[in-house]
Design the sequence.
């Protein structure tokens, strides 16, 4: 039995994810995504796939990266 570090649920099929040298225990993927997946810098949704990285930002898709680049160009 292990306890999910997000929701506190004790579940016999809980699993551990090692990220940057630290172990995290979860009862389901939803909790793992909530805790570990980066958020898209444009729309805020969780980036579950490889994502699109640009200058320290992570985006869920190329469209969001383009929107953000266009927005930054507008602001300055
Ligand atoms: Zn959980
Ligand atoms: Zn996005």
Sequence:
């Amino acid at each position: 039995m292990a306890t999910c570090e997000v929701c506190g649920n004790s579940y016999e099929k809980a699993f551990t994810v090692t990220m940057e040298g630290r172990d995290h225990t979860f009862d389901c993927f939803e909790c793992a995504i909530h805790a570990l997946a980066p958020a898209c810098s444009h729309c805020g949704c969780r980036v579950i796939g490889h994502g699109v990285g640009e200058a320290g930002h992570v985006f869920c898709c190329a469209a969001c990266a383009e929107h953000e680049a266009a927005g930054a160009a507008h602001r300055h």
